[in-house]
Design a protein that fits this description.
single chain, alpha/beta, 4-stranded mixed β-sheet, about 15% strand, PyrdxlP-dep_Trfase, transferase, aminotransferase, adenosylmethionine-8-amino-7-oxononanoate transaminase activity
Length: about 425
């Protein structure tokens, strides 16, 4: 049996109905923007393997940093101890984060970063003997698969089976063009009740919703409303962080900053699982007390793993190079040129670009489900043509490694054009 056949014997894959799913291609090697399967087939990784590999696969700089760290200190518990890489990484992050972010809490992945953020906001009010037990989130949001993150997520496909067990969350519309005033009015009415600890959002781009985009100006208004009513704001930058939107963080487009930020995915350049939740001083101070019961009792075995910290330091150093910043601008310029070319195609409903993110919505006669027939047909077509992409219903998006070549980008664009002819 080959690897794909052996895989099916024991492995249970995420977001997969195994009774109807096809086999999973076995990837055996990666370099830069390319991946190869066990049969030698080559693929362009046009989504940076779920948005985590901005500097490409098998990046030598990050690999060297990981190897060096493994020969020095692979791991040490962070409960009651510290180490140089965690200190250095926190110092580096303070240089690039919004200035109101003062404290850093390490965890394992995007979902756990969100869990820490939600627990931090809820317990802040608990520590103050104030009953604020609800949070606010956008419709169609996605924040992860653990229970707090699921509660904040608005895609019922992921949460329906658990909705009776979840934290209470009230939703506001995504403030896309035409919905701004409605979103503002609903938010204003909610925060006046003193029931809500936090408003969590994906800043400027809702990834799993189909790369839905909205303007920074309206988000600033929503953050301001929350601040005026003592509701904390949480920016889930798991997808948008580390250059995806053209700036280091999507929050860098804002003059008024969120109180909490969640980071993961590209944090370590796609190498080692790691996440970070950053807090403003006010929230941290709500736990700083002589009473041990007011501490944040949350932790993970691999919190602030030294090897992950070393990978993150190398990843940030790559992001800050002139070459990588040029690559981000180059990819954005190519996306804008392709958008201009494709936006009037008779099968294209809408297009949108922000930084290295490109998305188009295909016209359909009926609503297309998240994992529907069109999505499967498009996914298979792209794979047959050597492109790894994961359409979301009738939404096709590109979020490539920043080091993708122009020739590779043009092949991706041409394949999208060809795909429009088969739907």
């Amino acid at each position: 049996m080959n690897l794909s056949e052996r895989d099916l014997l024991y492995n249970w894959h995420p977001y997969t109905q195994h009774k109807t799913a096809q086999f999973h291609p076995a990837i055996v090697r990666g370099k830069d923007s390319l991946l190869w399967d066990e049969n030698g087939n080559e693929f362009i990784d046009a989504i940076a393997s779920w948005w985590v590999n901005p500097f490409g696969h098998s990046n030598q700089v990050i690999a060297d940093a990981i190897y060096k760290q493994l020969t020095t200190l692979e791991h040490v518990l962070f409960g009651g101890f510290t180490h140089d890489k965690a200190v250095l990484l926190s110092e580096k992050l303070m240089e690039i984060l919004p200035s109101n972010q003062k404290k850093i809490f390490y965890s394992d992945n995007g979902s756990t970063a969100v869990e820490v953020a939600i627990k931090g906001c809820l317990q802040y009010f608990y520590n103050k003997d104030k009953k604020r037990t609800k949070i606010i989130a956008f419709e169609d949001a996605f924040h992860g698969d653990t229970f707090g993150a699921m509660a904040a997520s608005g895609i019922s496909l992921y949460t329906e089976a658990f909705k009776s067990s979840l934290l209470e969350v009230v939703r506001v519309p995504i403030p896309t063009q035409g919905n701004e005033q409605k979103a503002i009015e609903i938010l204003e009415n909610l925060v006046k009740t003193d029931d809500y600890a936090a408003f969590i959002f994906e800043p400027l781009v809702l990834g799993a919703a189909g790369m839905v985009m909205y303007k920074p100006e309206i988000l600033e208004k929503m953050i301001t409303i929350c601040k005026q009513n003592n509701v904390f704001t949480i920016a889930d930058e798991v997808m948008t962080g580390f250059g995806k939107t053209g700036k280091t963080f999507a929050s860098d487009y804002l003059h008024i900053k969120p109180d909490v930020m969640c980071l993961s995915k590209a944090l370590t350049g796609g190498t080692i699982p790691m996440a970070i939740t950053t807090f403003c001083q006010e929230i941290y101070d709500g736990f700083y007390d002589d009473d041990i019961d007011k501490a944040l009792f949350h932790g993970h075995t691999f919190t602030a793993n030294p090897t992950g910290c070393a990978a993150a330091l190398a990843s940030i150093s790559l992001l800050q190079t002139d070459e990588m910043q040029h690559n981000i601008q180059r990819v954005n310029a190519s996306h804008l040129a392709f958008e201009e070319k494709i936006k009037n195609h008779p099968k294209v409903k809408t297009t949108r670009v922000l930084g290295t993110i490109f998305a188009l919505e295909i016209k359909t006669k009926t609503a297309e489900s998240y994992y529907g027939t069109m999505r499967t047909k498009l996914f298979n077509f792209f794979m047959e043509n050597g492109i790894i992409m994961r359409p979301i219903g009738n939404i096709v998006y590109i979020l490539p490694p920043y080091i993708i070549t122009e020739n590779q980008l043009q092949k991706v664009y041409q394949t999208i054009e060809n795909a429009l002819e088969i739907v």
